[in-house]
Amino acid sequence: MHPLLQHDRQNLTAILNQTQQLAAQYFARQDTLAPGRFVADIALEHMPDKGMGAQAALDYFGKHFADKMANSAGPRYFGFVTGGSTPASVAADWLVSAYDQNACGSNDSIAPQIERQTIHFFKEMFGLDDAYFGSFVTGATISNFTSLAQARQWVGEQHGLDFSNDGMAGSAPLVVLSATPHSSVPKALSMLGVGRKAIVKVDTLPEREAIDVAALEQKLAAQQGPCIVVASAGTVNTVDFDDLVAIGKLKTKFTFWLHVDAAFGGFAACSEKYAALMNGINAADSITIDAHKWLNVPYDAAMQFTRHKSVQLKVFQNSAAYLGDPAQSPDYFHYTPENSRRFRALPSWFTLMAYGKEGYRELVERNCDAAHHFGELLKNSEDFTLLAPVRMNVVCFTLKQEGVTADAIQQFLAAVRDDGRVFFTPTVLRGVPGIRAAISNWLTERADLELALEVLKSVADKLKKPESV
Hints:
By secondary structure, the protein is of the alpha/beta class.
């Protein structure tokens, strides 16, 4: 064994203690560290010929890199839809690395059994019936990819074609109907060879991101054959929900695969205040839900659910002598894009066991309350205006000025970022450049949004001054 490896093996406890100290330093400062920052490109160094050992590498990291990390796991990072990591999920994620399981086998480790148990917890949490098969994937993009791959196969089979074996050459173009699909949907269609242009946009309800079901019915009636419908259960700009009950009823009249993207909106099911938004979810053929958003577990983790396990097997079966017969094996590498699968179910299992239904109900309702409070603060502000009603945990707003531009928003948000207290990301809603506050962190309270408004007003005042000179 190399001397450095031998040394680190003998001093593993000290290495882990040093790692814990570095992490503890971060957590101790989580309320004050800048949630966003600009970090210039670093000069690339040559790989060392002789290593320095784990403890020296930890020292080097702590000195040169640790303070340049964005505090995206903290309470005032409102960009994208980013959760943090609950204490239980952090502990579990450390164990994931320590045990280093390839969570695909059935009985050679407890890991796949824990994944199945965790998926069962989620089915109960989201109100999914027992017919759904589920598994963990890396994120909402790959969850959408996995589901749309099945949808592609299913559409082919309606025409007597087997796309997974024969490919799509010579077949008629697939049609995907949707009103406000997440950007990962066209990305997935591109990767699948279906193509981004397969998406046919359906009208939304007035001043909404939700699909106009009457317009969808007209599109379905005009189709010459089976197609795919992608519904939203929580859009990224306004957390708007398509009417899943009404869409599900259309399946009695038309032949289509219904995929529901509920990446973070699915957590509406945790609260009696919002659970009705998820009514009709069991009409879905496939479902996407993210874990590293509102569940607040470390990246990367999401789930995919399907009513068509046999179709999923046709698409993702992995034929190799050492993996066994796909028809007989329940192993996950026959059902997901990955053969090598990190044990990403464990942080979800830990956090669900640690905080239970009540804990996540409180988290969801506290985040939504903070969002509504922020919305009211913005309504009473001289500098900002809401672009949409606050429905759950995302607040979409913009600068109160004529002809606001994307460049003006970018300049404004860069100044907010450099202030060092809060972080937001830009968006566009119905052609108007704006700002999104996505509130999904387990630490966030009303006070964090009150501070956010203070920062926003301060930056707005500073940017006005040069104009008045």
